[in-house]
Amino acid sequence: MSWLIVGTIPREEFPLVHGPCVYDGGKLQVDGHDIPVARGTPALLATACIASRILGIAAPLALLAGDTGRGQGSRQVYAKLVESIPELDLQGVTFHYLQPDVEWHNKVLWKLEERNPRPLLVADAGFMYVAKMSGFAASYDLFTPDAGEMAFLADEKAPHPFYTRGFLLQEEARVPELIERAYAAENAAKHLLIKGCIDYVVAAGHLVTAISEPSIPAMEPIGGTGDTVTGLVTALLSADYSIPQACTIAAKTNRQLGLLAAPTPAFSVANLMPFLPQALAVSLK
User: May I ask which residue range the UniProt record assigns to the signal sequence (predicted)?
Assistant: First the structure.
């Protein structure tokens, strides 16, 4: 069985590709296409590939297309998913940056629900938004929001994070309240990994653990460090860790990554990748 990562690349000319993810010598490739490691789905893919190698498991598959916000690439990905799901032997799927489209989301989810056993379903970024908007958030096994996105999940009326009502200014301090609101409105997955100054692991609305150390403030302005957490969770779930275990180890590893890399404001997420094997090894002890 394989794990599939679904997302987009912010290049309009990037084609629809489907195949194993390869990260070697600082270069990321899918189906023979080079992908620069920057924030977003490329950061998730590179992290999942490195972590999979350390864990001794197969690298994930990827389904990608280019999309700069117009939605055409996302629609190609949705259509390919609906076509391919019956043929794929999937352990799990991690959904990432896709243009939110409720109709296409529901087609994909219904195809996945037909599978027996049904794959584990993880959602972050744009796909998490549409999962909430569709009313089927509770069908997912894990969401990985940051604190601002948690405010969106907690708002039963907001159709998009841009329209969240009155939570965003103090979201970090209100995370426990936001968790309660999101589950009361059935706008949360079965598990949550909430990324922030404190990382919260939640199962069925109940706090499992909170991780705050080591605290590396220099990681905050580096675009893509939330995507690396989701990549780590993906690899750990593929290695058969339980969801709470995978979330806890992923959060700790990302913090170790900052400690080992000692980043400056000039760092990109690609500069963090060489430190990832050691960071994961420390967290697995």
Answer: none
Fold for 2-284, please state it: UDP-N-acetylmuramoyl-L-alanine:D-glutamate ligase (3.40.1190)
- State phi, psi for 21 to the nearest 5 degrees: -90, 135
> Across the beta sheet with 61-66, what order do the strands follow?
33-35, 27-30, 17-24, 61-66, 2-9, 90-95, 120-123, 142-143, 191-194, 199-203, 206-211
pLDDT digits (tens, 9 = 90+) for 99-149: 999 999 999 999 999 999 999 999 999 999 999 999 999 999 999 999 889
Q: Max CA-CA distance within the chain? A: 47
Q: Output the six-digit token pair for 243.
A: 């969801």
Are 255 and 211 in contact, with CB atoms under 8 Å apart? yes
Helical ranges in 97-174 per DSSP H: 102-113, 125-134, 147-154
- Three-state DSSP at 121 gives strand
